[in-house]
Design brief:
single chain, mainly beta, Cyclophilin, six-stranded antiparallel sheet, 10 strands
C-alpha cells in the first residue's frame, strides 16, 4: 500500500495531517506548507505547497483532499521519465471537478518552474481549465514551464515511491497495466498541536 501523508498548514497556524492511501509503493509523509515552512525533523516525505503564489490551486487541492474526493482515484497516466497523473474519479482522464463547480484559471508564476523531480501541478485540457486532476513529475520538465500551474513540490524522500510507480508497465496510451490506486484520503489531527 502506498501512503502519501501530508501536514497541511492552513493559511495560519492550523495544521492537519492527510494520508493518501494508494496501491503501490510507500510515501510515508508529504508535508504541505502554507504561507510559511515549518521545520519538523523526521525521515518522511515532504511537499511544499505554494499557497501564496497559487492560492486557487492550493485551496482546491486541500479542500478536495479534506472532502475525500480523491478516494478511489486511479493514477490513469504514467509516463516514465516524465510524470504520473491522477485526480479524475471517472478514471478516464477526462473527468474531475473543482471546489468552485467549474474550471478555474491558471496560476502561472515565472519564478516557479518544472526544474526537478517531484513538481506537483494541475493537469488540464487547456488554458484556464483546471479542475481536480494533478500530476507529479519524474524529472525536470522545462518544456512545461509557463503552461501548467505548479502548486507544490515533493521536497524530501519521494525517490523510492516515485521510482516504484515509474516502473509500472503501461499500455500504448500510458495507462498502467497494473492499477495504481489512490484508495482513500484520511485526515488526522495535528500531532504537533498544543
Amino acid at each position: 500500500m502506498l501512503v502519501f501523508s501530508a501536514l497541511l498548514t492552513k493559511l495560519s497556524r492550523i495544521i492537519q495531517a492527510v494520508t493518501l492511501h494508494t496501491s503501490h509503493g510507500e510515501l510515508k509523509v508529504l508535508r504541505l506548507f502554507i504561507r510559511r515552512k515549518h521545520a519538523v525533523s523526521d525521515d518522511s516525505e515532504q511537499i511544499e505547497l505554494f499557497c501564496e503564489a497559487t492560492p486557487k490551486a492550493a485551496e482546491n487541492f486541500l479542500a478536495l483532499c479534506a472532502s475525500n474526493y480523491y478516494d478511489g482515484c486511479i493514477f490513469h497516466r504514467n509516463i516514465k521519465g516524465f510524470m504520473i497523473q491522477t485526480g479524475d474519479p471517472s478514471g478516464t482522464g477526462k473527468g474531475g471537478d473543482s471546489i468552485w463547480g467549474g474550471p478555474f484559471s491558471d496560476e502561472i508564476r515565472p519564478t516557479i518552474k518544472f526544474n526537478s523531480r517531484g513538481m506537483v501541478a494541475m493537469a488540464n485540457s487547456g488554458r484556464d481549465m483546471n479542475k481536480s486532476q494533478f500530476f507529479i513529475t519524474y524529472s525536470k520538465q522545462s518544456h512545461l514551464d509557463g503552461k501548467y500551474s505548479i502548486f507544490g513540490r515533493v521536497i524530501d524522500g519521494a525517490d523510492d515511491a516515485l521510482s516504484i510507480m515509474e516502473k509500472v508497465p503501461v499500455n500504448h496510451k500510458h495507462r498502467p497495466l497494473e492499477p495504481i490506486t489512490l484508495e482513500k484520503v484520511t485526515i488526522h489531527a495535528n500531532p504537533f498541536a498544543k
